[in-house]
Design brief:
By secondary structure, this protein is of the alpha/beta class. Residues 206-220 have low confidence and may be disordered. Strand 4, helix 8 and strand 5 (131-134) form a beta-alpha-beta unit. The radius of gyration is 18 Å and the shape is elongated. The relative contact order is 0.20. The two termini are 29 Å apart. It is built from twelve helices and seven strands. Helix 3 runs antiparallel to helix 4 (58-73). It folds into two domains: 7-18 and 89-197, HAD superfamily/HAD-like (Rossmann fold), CATH 3.40.50; 22-86.
Length: 223
């Protein structure tokens, strides 16, 4: 393994977890809401950014979403939101297997634009990283260079010695701007092959399943 690689850093959503928004769609049907209403009230609202940078907790943000929906559509909305809140996405088994192999070789971190619910979600899905960086804990989100620099600093590894993977091109560019060896994620197989080229020796996943365009939520909302 090249001595210049001292650790790995990954995005979360679209790599290790896929959002199909089945919970939100179920809640909308239960509440007789037009499809996409929860996305508009939850993720397209300024309070989501506040939760992503730690000004609001995940619960405070969700309560605000519930309050605004209830004010606009009626009190029956609150009970109907349970499927949305209990939906934590679907794990990607190939990447979880790859992660376990990689952790035996170098420290591996996750940097995600997420609320403070990320750690509980990782535990829920049985996904273990050596370092976990929700943007809510960092106080800054991607693509700010400060998010990447903060993650590298907390890992104790210079950005130049970190390899980063993300399925959002803007975030890949941002990571490269501070010197990280950043690569665009497309599939588990491609990711494993790229890591092998860099000197790591992961086992290539058997199946090659692309995550775009239906395997994740809108990039700017959950990354």
């Amino acid at each position: 393994m090249p001595t210049c690689i001292e650790g790995l850093l990954f995005d979360m959503n679209g790599l290790f977890r896929h959002w199909h928004d089945t919970g939100a769609r179920t809640s909308e049907r239960l509440a007789n809401l037009p499809e996409g209403t929860i996305t508009r009230y939850a993720y397209n609202h300024p309070t989501y950014r506040l939760a992503r940078v730690g000004i609001l907790t995940d619960q405070q943000w969700a309560d605000d979403v519930s309050d605004r929906l209830t004010a606009d559509f009626g009190p029956h909305i609150r009970d109907a939101l349970t499927p949305w809140r209990t939906d934590r996405g679907q794990p990607e088994p190939q990447m979880i297997k790859l992660l376990a192999e990689l952790r035996r070789q170098v420290p591996v971190g996750v940097l995600s634009n997420s609320t403070d619910a990320l750690r509980a979600d990782l535990q829920h899905h049985g996904i273990t990283f050596d370092h976990v960086f929700p943007s809510a804990e960092l106080g800054v989100d991607k693509p700010s260079p400060h998010a990447f620099n903060s993650a590298a600093d907390r890992m104790g590894i210079s950005p130049q010695a970190l390899v980063y993977f993300d399925d959002e091109p803007t975030f890949v560019h941002a990571a490269r701007s501070i010197g990280m060896q950043a690569h665009l994620f497309t599939t588990p197989t491609e990711c494993a092959a790229r890591l092998e080229e860099l000197g790591l020796a992961p086992t290539l996943p058997v199946h090659d399943r692309r995550t775009h365009p239906n395997g994740r939520h809108t990039p700017e909302l959950r990354s």
